[in-house]
Amino acid sequence: MEAKTKNSINRRQFFRRSATVVITASAVGAVSPALVKSPEVSAKSLLDDNSSDTMIMLAELKDALKKPIEKRKWAMVIDARKCIDCNACTIACIAQYNLPPGVTYRKVYEIEDGEYPDVQRYFMPTNCMQCEKPPCVEPANKIIPGSMAIRPDGIVTIDYNKMKGKKVFNAAKNACPYDNALYYDEGKNYTDNTPAIQPYEKMKSNEYGKEFRRKETKDSTRKCHFCIDRIENGRLPACVSTCIGRAMYFGDINNTNSLVAKLIKSNPSFVINEGAKTLPSVKFVHDNLDETCLKCHG
Ligand code: SF4
Ligand code: SF4
After folding, report:
1. Pocket test for ligand 2, best of 22, 86, 283 (most atoms within 8 A of CB)
2. Cα 130 to averaged position of ligand 1 atoms, centre (Å)
């Protein structure tokens, strides 16, 4: 048995996936319980449907934000059974943060497993695991004090103005037991070497409560931060609110009645690379661990 992983997105794949998004969006709409309820369903009635997971997560987020920061602990739960590899989450993240070429806070791994005719294909979305005991922080801070920090709510942060240069990036990257959690921002643009850098490449984006343009994050280390600015404004992370397969969940795991806590309790759950003992805040659920990356990276 041979397992093969692929995660690069070339131009052809991008368009193929964009087409998948459109087709799948129609398919999901066709089976949505809210749509079955009434043929005259509107966006407003979908939003008024308080039973939807999204509305539950938004209400829970609001409650969590009323607590002191040290009393809440953010967690992401990925139901890998539901991921359809549309990459909408990856694209939402890139758009949210105006990410430059080479920086992707979130990747969806495509795993092909088996030999013809007994083959299967499954998908594993991943990002920085927001580890409770993150081995990246200390080596980074040893090189440049204040580069990285762990917030009381569990988010591992980077100070873009301090964490500059390859030396500090490599120190954190080499200590992190997860592939593709940290990225080095080379300050590139998609429209470099064209007659003009396009306006969208010059736009500001909000991270860590500040506005950044591309040139300001050049040479910084970048990674997922659970959309810190969105959640503090009562919005779900971009990947969670965009997920077409409804595979993504987010909330306060300290609240034992939260959707994320209940999902973990009522489903077979796991974290990637548990042996590294970093206590990741990104958790997965799946019935069959042989159809996850645990098969090779247990
Ligand atoms: S996944 Fe890696 S970069 Fe993210 S907190 Fe854990 S050790 Fe640090
Ligand atoms: S948006 Fe959801 S379904 Fe699509 S690739 Fe991301 S996690 Fe999977």
Report:
1. 86
2. 6
Q: Whose CA is nearest to atom 6 of ligand 2?
A: 89
The ligand placed nearest to the CA atom of residue 84 is 2
Q: Which residue has the tokens 């002191």?
A: 68
Question: For the chain, what is the HEC assignment?
Answer: CCEEEECCCCHHHHHHHHHHHHHHHHHHHHHCHHHHHCCCCCHHHHHHCCCCHHHHHHHHHHHHHHCCHHHCCEEEEEECCCCCCCCHHHHHHHHHHCCCCCCCCEEEEEEEEEECCEEEEEEEEEECCCCCCCCCHHHHHHHCCCCEEECCCCCEEECCCCCECHHHHHHHHHHCCCCCCCEECCCCCCCCCCCCCCHHHHCCEEECCEEECHHHHCCEEECCCCCHHHHHCCCCCHHHHHCCCCCEEEEECCCCCCHHHHHHHHCCEECCCHHHCCCCCEEEECCCHHHCHHHCCC
Give yes or no for residue 135 CB within 6 A of ligand 1. Answer: yes
pTM to 2 decimal places: 0.82
CATH of domain 3-295: 3.30.70.20
CA 248 to ligand 2 center in whole angstroms? 8
Q: Domain ranges in the chain?
A: 3-295
Average pLDDT (283-296) is: 76
Q: What is the C-alpha separation between 284 and 78, in angstroms, rounded?
A: 5
pLDDT digits over 139-189, tens only? 999 999 999 999 999 999 999 999 999 999 999 999 999 988 999 999 999
